[in-house]
Specification:
The complex is a heterodimer.
Chain A (H helix, E strand, L loop, with lengths): L6 E12 L2 E13 L4 E5 L6 H8 L7 E6 L2 E2 L5 H11 E4 L11 H6 L9 H14 L15 H13 L5 E5 L7 H18 L2 E6 L11 E6 L2 E7 L3
Parallel strand pairs in A: 3-8, 3-9, 6-7, 7-8
Antiparallel strand pairs in A: 1-2, 1-4, 4-5, 9-10
Helix pairs in contact in A: 5-6
Chain B lengths: L1 H13 L1 H39 L2 E5 L24 E4 L2 E2 L5 H9 L3 E13 L6 E7 L4 H4 L9 E4 L9 E5 H6 L7 E4 L2 E9 L10 E4 H9 L12 E6 L5 H12 L4 E4 L3 H40 L1 H9 L4 H33 L2 H4 L7 H28 L2 H7 L1
Parallel strand pairs in B: 5-10, 7-9
Antiparallel strand pairs in B: 1-11, 1-12, 2-3, 2-4, 4-5, 4-11, 6-9, 7-10, 8-9
Helix pairs in contact in B: 1-10, 2-8, 2-10, 2-12, 8-12, 9-13, 10-12
Classes of the chains: A alpha/beta, B alpha+beta.
């Protein structure tokens, strides 16, 4: 039976104009992401991996090429539909977590449940539940500044996973924490991916703790995505 | 919508300093609206009262012309001294006015009320000379308020009331000249009257020496004419709807009484309404400028807040908040700020009007429900505009550009 990719990117190009000069950031990137996969994209800063990540998550639009999410083209979606897709089907984890500083851990996680149709009590229950799973049950009402880096990262992961997305896009998810914490986070994320047969795309500029567990590893250089290394069959 | 208000309220609570600044702007706007409207209303009412006292009234009459056959022959030509006695107004012989004309004047849109008035010159019963008698319709305030003589102008005695047909009121100067006082007897024609009051009205269009009720004077006049006239009236006392409408009211009276009519009024209503207009316009201009400034400040604070929260907006949009969600939250914030500010402003203004000395508030006008509603609604309208401006700015921000700068 033919496998259907969650995400399929074809010939993605992206350029920016800086001081009247056109800088091409992505050149014909091709990427298919299948359920259950962990894909690692490695590249140095400025090589285009963040731009690729934004395009994959629908935050930015490519100059050309097409992205299909479960067979639906991003270009066919309205802004509202794209927001809904991103909210319900894609979990985003930023390198520096990007938590709202004036909101508590629980409020940050709960914010991803906006428009979910759940009652305020249900939202709270769900947010509490996932934070407890992240061992943050005693930190629900703390502001990000009152949490350790590792705890902040767990809040960010909880926010990304609370809607049970099909695809997780993470930028250096273990980059800011010690190896032990990184290992714990990786365990949470990978077990989520395997349990729900979802997929995760990780971008990293150096070594990713879970690199050895990746299904495919890509490298990006000068905007070109080089052929995947098939780590596992 | 519930979520929008929930997040808006959270934002307002968490950023107390900024919230206080924004609410304060709306509070100032709301308070100024209420104070300006109430104080200008007080000023207007006070000015109106002054103008009402002196300028919003007129006396209309029809001078007797000498063209044969054109007029009702009611002038007392044969009785006593035909040159000295009869219907007069402003020292000129007059024709009579019919009830229908007075009713038409009363129905005019620019006229608040109109009353019949009878002025009759009679020969003095105390030596030579003539006296002017004024017959007032005591059932109509217009007749005995600003046009002829008011109760407040009684120097001594009691103002006469309807039915007091044997009583008269005499002018202070007249009483002094003839050594008359309250309770004195006064013979007019062949009838004895008792003086009920000494009055001292200022310059009035319908000024007379002796005032009595209209029925009493009609009864007296009937004894002076050589042919009977039923319920004669030779002048109409008119109160305009307001000083601004006085000119129009005078034109109406003139049209109804005919080309030969004369309208006697004080000239001060014209500069009065000019001053009123200047005062009102200045007050409104200052109010408008202050309100606009306050709303601009609130708008600036809200837009600055959006710029300050650019990062948050970007993150929220990245995790799936739609433009509509962001717009709803910011509009909800604006609504809360402006409603709270406007309502607080109304309250502050209301208290200020109660505690400020009367010299500052012109006597203090009650804050009407309409003004209260305006004091809240105008800031809310401004808040919605400010909210929309800041929301559109937030919505226009490209998520990728924000995320890129984080």
């Amino acid at each position: 039976m033919e496998r259907v990719p969650i995400l399929k990117c074809s010939n993605i190009t992206k350029s920016f104009r800086v001081r009247g000069k056109t800088i091409r950031v992505l050149h014909g990137a091709e990427l298919d992401v299948y359920p259950g996969e962990l894909i690692v994209i490695k590249g140095r800063s400025g090589e285009g991996k963040s731009v690729l990540q934004w395009i994959l998550s629908g935050i930015d639009t490519p100059d050309s090429g097409e992205i299909l999410f479960e067979g639906v083209s991003y270009s066919k979606l309205s802004g509202e539909e794209m927001s809904t897709l991103r909210r319900e089907r894609i979990g985003l984890i930023f390198q520096n977590f990007n938590l709202i500083e004036s909101w508590t851990a629980m409020e940050n996680v709960e914010s991803a449940l906006l428009n979910s149709g759940l009652s305020p009590e249900e939202k709270r229950e769900k947010a509490v539940s996932i934070l407890e799973k992240m061992d943050l049950g005693h930190r629900l009402d703390n502001l990000p500044v009152e949490l350790s880096v590792g705890q902040q990262q767990r809040v960010a992961i909880a926010r990304a996973l609370i809607n049970e997305p099909s695809l997780i896009i993470a930028d250096e998810p273990t980059g800011s924490v010690d190896d032990e914490t990184a290992g714990e986070m990786l365990t949470i994320l990978l077990s989520y991916v395997k349990d729900r047969n979802s997929a995760m795309v990780v971008t990293t500029h150096g070594h990713f703790t879970g690199e050895h567990l990746a299904d495919r590893i890509y490298s990006i250089k000068e905007g070109r995505l080089y052929s995947a290394t098939q780590v596992q069959a | 919508m519930h979520d929008a208000f929930k997040y808006a309220w959270r934002e307002i609570r968490r950023r107390k300093q900024r919230s206080a600044g924004t609410v304060l702007s709306y509070l100032t706007a709301g308070a100024i609206i209420v104070l300006a409207v109430s104080l200008s209303g007080t000023t207007r009412d006070n000015t109106q009262q002054v103008l009402w006292d002196i300028g919003a009234h007129t006396v209309g009459y029809i001078p007797r012309l000498t063209i044969e056959g054109c007029c009702i022959q009611t002038y007392a030509t044969d009785l006593y001294d035909p040159d000295r006695e009869g219907f007069i107004a402003n020292n000129a012989p007059t024709n009579l006015i019919v009830d229908e004309q007075i009713e038409m004047i009363r129905q005019s849109a620019n006229v608040a009320d109109a009353a019949p008035y009878l002025m009759f010159r009679i020969r003095s019963s105390m030596g030579t000379g003539e006296w002017v008698l004024g017959g007032i319709d005591l059932t109509r305030p217009v007749a005995h308020a600003a046009t002829v003589v008011a109760g407040s102008q009684v120097v001594e005695g009691e103002f006469i009331e309807p039915g007091d047909d044997g009583l008269v009121m005499v002018e202070q100067e007249f009483a002094g000249a003839y050594n008359l006082g309250v309770g004195s007897e006064l013979v007019l024609g062949d009838i004895n009257y008792k003086i009920a009051a000494i009055v001292n009205p200022p310059l009035r269009p319908g000024k007379a020496n002796i005032y009595m009720s209209l029925p009493a004077l009609r009864e007296l006049v009937a004894t002076r004419l050589d042919e009977a006239v039923e319920d004669p009236t030779n002048a109409v006392l008119v109160e305009s709807v307001g000083a601004q409408y006085h000119e129009a009211a005078m034109a109406d009276v003139s049209n109804i009484l005919g080309q030969s009519s004369r309208i006697s009024s004080f000239g001060c209503w014209r500069p009065g309404i000019t001053v009123m207009g200047i005062t009102a316009n200045t007050a409104w201009t200052i109010t408008a400028v202050v309100i606009i400034c306050m709303l601009l400040i609130a708008m600036k604070i809200q837009i600055a807040s959006v710029v300050q929260r650019r990062f948050e907006m970007g993150v929220l949009k990245a995790i799936g908040w739609s433009d509509g969600n962001i717009l709803s939250q910011l509009m909800a914030e604006s609504l809360i700020y402006s409603f709270a500010g406007g309502a607080a402003g109304v309250l502050v203004a209301f208290i200020a009007l109660q505690v400020l000395p009367a010299e500052l508030t012109g006597g203090g006008q009650a804050v009407t429900p309409l003004v209260m509603v305006a004091g809240v609604l105008l800031p809310v309208t401004g808040g919605l505009v400010a909210g929309l401006a800041s929301s559109l700015r937030a919505v226009r921000m490209r998520t990728a550009d924000i995320i890129r700068t984080i």
